[in-house]
Amino acid sequence: MYKKHSFTEAFIRNLFVWIFIAFAIFPFIWIFSASINPSNTLLGQSLIPKNFTWDRYIEFFTNEQHPFGLWILNSIKVSGITAIFTVILAALGAYAFSRFRFKGRRTGLLSLLLVQMFPQMLAMVAIYLLLLNIGKYISWLGLNQHISLIMVYLGGAMGFNMWLMKGYFDTISYSLEESAMIDGATHFQSFLRIILPLARPILAVIFILQFIGTYSDFILASILLSSKENYTLAVGLRLFITGQYTTRWGMFATASIIGALPIMMIFLLLQNQLVSGLTRGGVKE
Amino acid sequence: MTMKNLLFSISLKILILGILDALAIWSIITIIFDGYYWVGGILSLGVIIINYIFLSEKAYPFRYMVPGLIFLIIMVIYPIFYTIFVSFTNYGTGHILSKEQVIEQFENQYYLSEDNATYTYQVFKNNYGDLKVILYSLNGESYLCENEKKIIKVNLSDSRFIDIDKDGIIDQFDGYKKLDKIQIIQSLNELQNLRFKKDEYFIKLVSLTEFKVYSKKYQFDSLEDRLLDLKNGIIYYPIEGYFVSEQGERLAPGFRVSIGFKNFIRLIKSPQISNPFLRVFGWTFLWAFLSVITTFALGLTLAIVLNDPYLKFRKIYRTLLILPYSIPAFISCLIWRGFFNTEVGIVNRILNNFFQVIIPWLQDPIWAKVALVIVNLWLGFPYMMIITLGALQSIPSELGEAASIDGASGWQQFKKITFPLLLVSLAPLLIGSFAFNFNNFNVIYLVTQGRPAIPGAGTPAGSTDILISYTYRLAFEGVRGNQWGLASAVSLIIFIIVAIISAVGFRYTRALEEISKNV
User: Fold this and answer.
1) Which residues contact A282 (CB under 8 A, 6 or more apart)?
2) Percentages helix, strand, coil for chain A, rounded to the nearest 5?
3) For B251-364, where are the alpha helices, taking DSSP H only?
């Protein structure tokens, strides 16, 4: 249905695309301009500042009242640990579902599928009350602890990722494992030495998607975390800027840029893989 | 595996399992002693199952699943059931404690009455600093008292009480010596903390010269299930989480109790709650629908243009267009909120420069909704563009070629061939996107926070709130405290809607077929 275009036609098409490119990237330019503008306020900002300053980037690391760097480190720590354990635990579970035939397997798979349909945040009240009560007995597993936040994320990640990983394991042929087991390998050894290396692509995809997803979560972190030194970036940045847009705009812009960088870099580097993963994942052929 | 290795791995397994069991049993005992029999029972069952899985060869496959499933069960499945449970209770601010705890609180309340017996006193102290007090009642009886202990009637003519200067006042006994006025004032703090027990009452210092009897205020009658006010003779009955008198007077605090379908009935029938709730309910559907339509329309258009092999710089265009998708949504939402600032935000500055209009983006209910749809369009169109590009590639080009030989125009080809085929392959993703936006908390909460508020709403509800943000505000941001019961009821309603949407979505996916195929 595509033909070679005349010059005007091509021009109109390009113009059309550029209008939406402008829509897509304008916020990036405007935020960057805000971050180097000497005036910290919304009002004082212009697209191309008359003079510029890197002061805000220095302040980012030195602001003691709002430790942005610490918040980003917290986010990276929580997301990283969550992503690693998601990969390990989901791979173990998926291996069992993929390679063993046992009573309850079908029910188990069906329940996984059902459970992963419901966003975990729907049960936020129950999760909050659960951790509130656990905290009365074991304070390091209660509210306002990174470890409990990680455990909450891990629970939420299991359904979907175990399911996804099981689908991938199913495509790996049995023959290698069979010959390994004839040579006396145990199930666990063949999981460790054969399946995991062959499944490296899906392990990487799940690690990255889980990292991005956890890094971007706001709601669960905001319910559980209550002290400044424990905030993740999502919670800290929101509290920093709410009600203060007119006076803290420049600093907010700087923190946004630095906070978005880790995710943006991962995304742009792995663009092709993630894009093809998104397309393949859902499309029914 | 050699015999030695096997032996080693088995003993290691038993050692680790043993340590974990010891910890588990210890915590279960603690929990049961605290009266949480249910939790203790379920935990014990869990421990038994885990032991079985790791010791029995039959349960071998489950060993791989246990670590992941523990988190899934504790952090997802249990909370789902607990949400259902809480939605039928009045749990929340004012109803935090259980009935037993509240009764205990009431039974520990005492009051001071003018008619109650008054005592004069003398204080004695021994070398270790322990205090004892002798109280004298008005009718001449004397009592020996110690903190938190029952008072004992004594006869002062007993030989252990020694009156050295023969002035009729005891000066020392059993190694305790009398304190004079100045010493009493010095240890006043200590004296004020003394409580002497007498039957149902206790005796406490009320002024520098007297001790007085404090009477118990409430007594719970467990046979009749009612609370008696011993002071005024009022009887309170437990009604829906409060002790209420026949005149309708309520005692605070209330306790948590099952209230049946009351939360759901309030959402539908109580006008102060149901009006805002129904508006939130309606807007949630409209919002999800508008989100899918707008992002899909733009994503589809751009995908078709970018799919054109004759367009130059397609790769660069694609990368630039998916940039919004590459940053965490919470950051974009917070940024857009600044853009929509009515006085000095960039959107209004541009509108003012070119069209001389100022739009109250975040103050007006309609414009706030428009702002949200624009933000979501920016966030969501790259995803739609990516999936459409993928689906376009899977449509065989021969179809289009055949149609153009038959004389179909480009538009006809799109309408009759490309678009229907696209819809077939994208339907599950569009339904998924609907479900996602139905619960798109980040955009709503971080851009408008659900505001502007609905006037006259009895609960924190705004005109841009969707069900999930409404739940959050009920549970954690209410003016009248946390309404966990009501919030859980709203959650449960969302659960049901999500289940229905997913059931529809299932008809378009092969997930179910996959399960049956594999067994």
Assistant:
1) B387, B428, B429, B432
2) 75, 0, 25
3) 262-269, 271-306, 314-321, 329-339, 346-355
The SS3 assignment for B198 reads: strand
**Residue of chain B minimizing CA distance to A156:** B76
At B351-363, the pLDDT tens digits run 988 998 889 998 9
Number of A/B CB contacts below 8 angstroms equals 286
Instruction: Kindly determine whether residue A14 and residue B311, on different chains, have CB atoms separated by under 8 Å.
Output: yes
Q: Indicate if the pLDDT at residue B301 is higher than 60.
A: yes
Q: How far apart are CA B490 and CA B304, in angstroms?
A: 41
- Topology (CATH) of B110-216: Periplasmic binding protein-like II (2.40.430)
Q: How far apart are CA A47 and CA A32, in angstroms?
A: 9
Query: Which range has the worst mean pLDDT, A25-29, A60-64, A278-282?
Result: A278-282
Q: How far is the C-alpha of B360 from the C-alpha of B368, rounded, in Å?
A: 8
ipTM of the complex: 0.91
pLDDT tens-digit series, residues A191-231: 999 899 998 888 988 999 899 999 999 999 999 999 999 99
Q: Locate all alpha helices (DSSP H) within B363-465, ordered by sequence.
A: 365-393, 397-405, 410-413, 419-438, 441-447
Residue B296: is it exposed, middle or buried by C-beta count within 10 angstroms (0-12/13-18/19+)? Answer: buried
Q: Give the separation between CA B147 and CA B190, rounded to whole angstroms.
A: 10
Cα separations (Å) of A133 from A130, A141, B99, B451?
A: 5, 10, 17, 32
A159/B317 touch (CB, cutoff 8 Å), yes or no: no
From 1.10.1740.10, 2.60.40.150, 2.60.120.10, 1.10.3720.10, which CATH number describes the B266-518 domain? 1.10.3720.10
CATH topology of domain B3-87: Methane Monooxygenase Hydroxylase; Chain G, domain 1 (1.20.58)
- Read out DSSP for A8-64? HHHHHHHHHHHHHHHHHHHHHHHHHHHHH-S--SSTT--SS-SS---HHHHHHHH-S
Which CA distances in Å does A147 have to A79, A152, B66, B114, B481?
11, 9, 19, 56, 27
CB atoms within 10 A of CB B455: 7
Determine, for residues B344 and A158 on separate chains, whether the beta-carbon distance falls below 8 Å.
no
Between B253 and B370, where is the model more confident? Answer: B370
Give the pLDDT score at A284.
35
What domains sit in chain A, N to C, each tagged with a CATH number? 66-279 (1.10.3720.10)
In three state form, how does the secondary structure of B50-86 look?
A: HHHHHHCHHHHHHHHHHHHHHHHHHHHHHHHHHHHHH
Which residues of chain A does B91 touch, with a Cβ-Cβ cutoff of 8 Å?
A: 129
- pLDDT tens-digit profile of A221-245? 999 999 999 999 999 999 999 888 8
Q: What are residue B213's DSSP bridge partners?
A: B203
At A37-90, the pLDDT tens digits run 887 777 767 777 777 888 889 888 888 888 999 999 999 999 999 999 999 999
Q: Tokens in use for B318? A: 């694609």
Mean pLDDT of A173-190: 88
Give domain limits for chain B.
Answer: 3-87, 99-106+218-255, 110-216, 266-518
Cβ A234–B76 below 8 Å, yes or no? Answer: no
> Residue B401: is its pLDDT beyond 50?
yes
Contacts of B488 (CB under 8 A, 6+ apart): A125, A126, B83, B84, B86, B87, B91, B263, B475
Cα–Cα distance between B438 and B449 in angstroms, integer?
A: 16
Q: Contact B86/A125, CB-based, under 8 Å?
A: yes
Please state, for a pLDDT cut of 70, what percent of chain B lies above it: 97
Nearest to B338 among A117, A154, A249 (CB): A249
